[in-house]
Amino acid sequence: MAEKIEYRGHLHDLQKDLMNDYFDQMTRSAQGEGSPAVYLLISGNPVELLRAFDLLPVYPEINALQTAVKKQALPFIQKAEELGYSTDNCAYVKADIGLFYSGNKAPMATVPPPGLLLTNYVGCNVYLHWWEHLAELTGAPIFDIDIPFLRSLDGEPSREDLQYVVRQLEELIPVLEKISGKKYDPDRLREVVQYSLETGEYWAKIKMMPQLKPAPYDAYFDAVTMMGPLYALRGTKEGRDYFRAAYEELQKRVALQEGPLPEEKYRLVIEGPPPWPYLRTFRDMFARWGAVFVASSYSTVGGLWEFGFRHDPSNPIESIAMHMLKWNLTNRNFLQRYAQLKSYVEDWNADGLVIHSVKSCRLFSAGQGDMREYFARELNVPTLLVESDLEDQRYFSPAQMRTRIDAFMESLEHHKLVGHQR
Amino acid sequence: MRYFAGVDVGSTQTKAVLVDEAGDMVAKVLVDTGSNVVKAAERAFLEAVAQAGTRREDVDYIVGTGYGRFNVTFGNDQVTEISCHAKGIAHVNPNVRTVIDIGGQDAKAIKIDATGDVKDFVMNDKCAAGTGRFLGNSAEVLNLSLDEIGPRSLEAKVPVRLSTVCTVFVETDILSHLALGRSVENILGGVHSAVAARVVALARRVGIERDVALTGGVSRNVGMVRALEHHLDVPIYVSPDAHFMGALGAALFARERAMAVAG
Questions:
Q1: In chain A, positions 357-416, which contact chain B (CB-CB < 8 Å)?
Q2: String of b and e for B89-124 (b: at least 16 CB within 10 Å)?
Q3: A387 vs B79: CB contact, 8 Å cut-off?
Q4: β-strand A114-119 against A142-144: which pairing, if any?
Q5: Residue A257 to residue A250: CA distance in whole angstroms
Q6: What pLDDT was estimated at residue B103?
Q7: What is the pLDDT of residues B56-107, one digit of tens each?
Q8: Given an 8 Å threshold on Cβ–Cβ distance, is B123 in contact with A406?
Q9: Can you name the CATH fold of B95-238?
Q10: Which of A208, A240, B164, B210 could pair with B169 as two cysteines, CB 3.0-4.6 Å apart?
Q11: Cβ density class A352-382: b for 16+ within 10 Å, e for less
């Protein structure tokens, strides 16, 4: 079995520095210095509009997962449960509410109070209630952007859908002017959107690289490293420079034919968010088999750049609206989600599919039983479904998880040995 | 003569099997796992060596399986119980395509081909409903031994309908049926039916293809076999060694791997 020596490069270290800077900005904002904070959600986030007013984007989802990665989320979750939140509630919400009641002191930053609560995606009704609770606790105003689901079979939003979202973004502008105390400057927005365009170009190229064999990085475990800057720093020069540096580093790895593990024995696709508190353990369970993830749907929750999305500086607001409507994974119907995974399996040349179902997020996990059947039975793709949680460590049972993964890998190994792959 | 061993460390019982060069089972031993998992694995293995009338040094390769497979510290390798049950059953009956394995605290359904290659599998998660523990708790409430409950469940005239599938809450459920004057047989009929329904729902997720085999400790319970046949509406194959299928599969893997090493 492969040694579990994993790739750690400049892009990991640089990410750490940049995210630490970002968390320092949060702490300064909490101390009343620097920019006011606007809370927003990862799914199809319009961070460009905030950056154009020099407002600080704060993603409670990032705060929750950062806390979970450091295995410090459970006391916050339990605090929320003491207050009456059910064990069945989303654990991101509970970690965030527990954090609020603990003085907003997260392990990596003090979280500033919101100047505005922006619900930029309402397909998940939990988001809406989460923000309502925060509004009640903090007294901050809510601005609710209603994003219609993609209802047509081809997944194209209608002209009216687009106008509806554009109109709401235009209505958001005076609200942002008021909070930032700055006048709307279309040239400044174009400049921000230009950075996002270039960031998206690099990110899309990075996401295509694991089509090569060996994949130069793990498109799940290393991709989540790059997701922080993609949301927290998109629309800034630092963000664009980060993705250029990451792209250049990975290009060198491609030239040297280096992968994230000493040997790439299996290529897998994964659906679903990671078990953050057990990220390392979960990774090792695959790494010991020489299994590399070549594509992941989770790394597209903030946008689907590898399938063609780009921001457009000549038409900034409309391109932000298209990002939120059409190029947002969680706004897509099941057929589109299946098609995306099917493309990953086929075009990224994978040996199998792993579905990590999480208890917290019904939006993500709904339909994954059918998804398993569709891939296993209709497409004959070896498929494993495992369950735990993205935030609450009590739902991760290492022995049970390992047995399922080992059994799946044993059958893949057998397939390879006897040479009858799909 | 060279031998190959499989040690299946389950949550309740530990099984050891020795096979010879031809792959024939020459020893099988069952011990309670208890709290010292490493000791239990060692004891089962050494008893199997003694049963075969051979020596420790004549065992070429040892594979550990079951939840405690990493506690088979004297073993050469580990293979999951999913692959081992598949391997074992294909050896004793190559017509089997669906394996239902019900152990002390897990239940699984495995889809296989004639060579024992695993096509797909599903397992229960984080919940002991539909496992041996559910039957064990029920027997305890009724003050019966595990061996008694299966045959007596077959005498049920009107099986009760349990209101829970929870292994913890089944106790109060049974007590309330006793209070209502239901017979022990009717209650046991309901208990077996509840477990069968749960396991069948799990098995349908991989798709039921004949022949269907039951393995694991619960295969010794005739009431459970009948309840599963009733819910699935197909006959179920139970090998006389069904309880040892995991250990047998592990021993067969040991034999294969020893031969691969030897070239």
A1: 369, 373, 376-377, 383, 385, 387, 395, 397, 399-400, 403-404, 406-407, 410-411, 414-415
A2: bbbbeeebbbbbbbbbbbbbbbbbeeebbbbbbbbb
A3: no
A4: parallel
A5: 10
A6: 87
A7: 999 999 999 998 999 999 999 999 999 999 999 999 999 999 999 998 888 9
A8: no
A9: Nucleotidyltransferase; domain 5 (3.30.420)
A10: B164
A11: bbbbbbbbbbebbbeebeebbbbbbeeeebb
A193 neighbors A316 (Cβ within 8 angstroms): yes
Is A223 within 8 Å of A217 (Cβ atoms)? Answer: yes
Q: Are B64 and B78 in contact (CB under 8 A)?
A: yes
Contact B126 A397 (CB under 8 A): yes
Contacts of A76 by beta carbon, 8 Å cutoff, 6+ apart: A67, A94, A95, A96, A97, A98, A99, A102
Structural domain boundaries of chain A?
Answer: 10-418
**C-alpha A390: how far from chain center:** 12
pLDDT over 90 at A384, yes or no? yes
Find out if CATH 3.30.420.40 is the number for domain B1-93+244-263.
yes
Q: How far is CA B47 from CA B1, B18, B31, B67, B68, in A?
A: 18, 10, 9, 21, 18
CA dist B11 and B34 (Å) reads 8
Give domain limits for chain B: 1-93+244-263, 95-238
pLDDT in tens, A268-314: 999 999 999 999 999 999 999 999 999 999 999 999 999 999 999 99
Tokens of B218: 């619960």
AA letter at A352: G
H/E run at residue A290: none
| Single-letter amino acid code for the residue at B179 | A
Please answer yes or no on whether B118 and A385 come within 8 Å at the CB atom.
no
Residues of A in contact with B207 (CB under 8 A): 377
The CA distances from residue A105 to A111, B8, B137, in Å, are: 6, 48, 46
